[in-house]
Amino acid sequence: MKAQSLSEPMDLRAIDFNFTVEQINRLAEEATNEYNAILDKVAKQTRPTFENTIVPLARWYNEITELVTASGLRYFHPDKQICDASAEADNKFMGCVIEGYMRLDVYKAVRYVYDDQEEMIMLSAEDKRLVETIERQFRKNGLQISSKKRALLSKAKKRLVQLEDEYALNSAACSYVLFTREELDGVSENDIAGMAVVYEDGVEKHAVSTNVFVYNRVMRYAKREETRKRLYVACGKESLKNIAYIQEAVELRLEIAKLLGYESHAESVFEGRMVKSADEIIDMYEELRRRLSKHIDAEMGRLTAVKKADMLAEGREYTGFFEWDYYYYSYVTSEKKRDMFEIEGNQYFPIIEIGCKLIDIFEGMLGLYIIPAQEPNVWHPDVEMFEVWEADESEFIGHLYLDLYTRESKRETFTTFSLRRGCQRPDGSREFPAVIVNAVFPKPTEDKPTRLSFDNLEMLMVLFGQAFATLCESVKWRDLLDPEFEFHIVPGEIMRRWISEPTVLQQLGSHYLTGETIPDQLVKGPITDGTEVTPGELLIPITFDLHDLLIHSATDKPVDVKQAYYDLCKQVPFMRNNDTGVFHLITHRYLMAGYDTGMYVYLWSSIISEDIYWSRFRKNGLYNRKTGREYRNEILRPAGSRSASVSLERFLGRQPSTEAFYKNKFK
Fold this sequence. Notes:
By secondary structure, the protein is of the alpha+beta class. 54% of the residues lie in helices and 8% in strands. Helix 1 (21-43) packs across helix 3, helix 1 (21-43) crosses helix 5 (104-115) and helix 4 (80-100) runs antiparallel to helix 8 (147-172). The chain is globular, with a radius of gyration of 25 Å.
């Protein structure tokens, strides 16, 4: 990353975050009015064509950049009134779009173009894909069914959007469980330093958040079973509060599928995906289960033996092995030795330096030139803003924002927010993407430097991979920005593999006090050889994925979401909860964020990512210019303007394979 900006001035279209409530309301009103006018005009076409029907619809979506930015403020803006106005604008905008795609008169015009093979054959591949995409969106809204059913469909879809928003807001508020320092024995001082101190009856205690990232670390390292169980139950109760949202959503999705003529919600969503049916996923899981079976019994025997020994040493009765035990005993019995990062390694990863060092990696990998913005326009003083250019400084790419520290009113999540996307403007030029990397690390001080664990570092690397995928995209139509569902997280998963490379860790690591480079002995071992996944760490997400498929594959009446989860957990020896009565599906927040009937995507994307990593980057060199350029041009730049299957085959030179995954993920 370079230290100063380019000398020649240029209009970089930096976003102005000084929105007012009135401005946000006006943007939503103007955009919806314009959209409705376009719909009316399209519906009146006597001879629909690509230019007078498809282009106006797609161009409107390309041009509402400012509204899209304003509707994203709800995720991170410090002013609650702005957040509320942003959420309201988004609901109005999405409601308008839903109604638009329910208009039969507009669909007739779109369908006319779709059926005009003489014109379709003359279109470019990207324009033809646009027609097919828009036609499918209308068709899947039930425009082939009766008007009465369409009204029910519109009502159900609007309620589902509202339900998902309510769930997201409810989930954003984390609770806390208080523990003494003794009760947190085994948890690193670095993690404890990020916890608020509370005095209860004169006793100093630490507030442990039910945020999934804090939860995972305490469950992995806390030695006391009662501590793990208390946190497990607290998080389970958080999930239990949200079960009604999930249950209603599952019922609504089945209702929508039935109205559209599908047997199940699962059947309806596989249309348009890379994976064409649930059978493909089930076959994949059967193969995984076969490979795992011989390892599971051995792993369970090893874990229970250690717990029994612990209980005997403490003079306590062994009552069983439960879900709150798995990650701790998996950690303490593992040969992967992540202790090096928890005890010594995190001294080499101070948060204050990591952002710029990660940027350096992407500069080298993708052939970019990245500089801090000289006059950053941001929503909070903690936010850093960067300009992203081509390496030869010939073309501006977009803006990157780093919002890495926790603060009051900020959403407690690690994610990326796309404020602007790389589609074509009306004058034919490319819109400059703008993306936020959002994290919730404690802000470092002179007395308390925030140092990252390997897990933290890995998470940031994944987020940067996703962010740079957005920055590098360049398509004609905004409707084609997103690749098929299964592929959109692949750019992040590829970078998860990079972070285990010793050379990458040494590039990122320097001692927070001395500046010394991280020693060789700390970055070599199982954590960097690609075999760090245990059988249970694969079986647990498989169970979650099967639950997702089960509750969305019902064809008659909705499945009881909670009972289905309990039944599946009984089949896994280390997912029992001793009848605590809680619904512990903490990672299934994604069921309400567009990932329904799609939890399999994480494992699927891991298989694809391993193939890309080993067959191109690891084989040719991590910073091989040709590989990096082809990755940008064949994978990132096209985004969803063509099938991801085509992009993969062009980059790999063949069809994807599972060989690299099985070779490098199983011991």
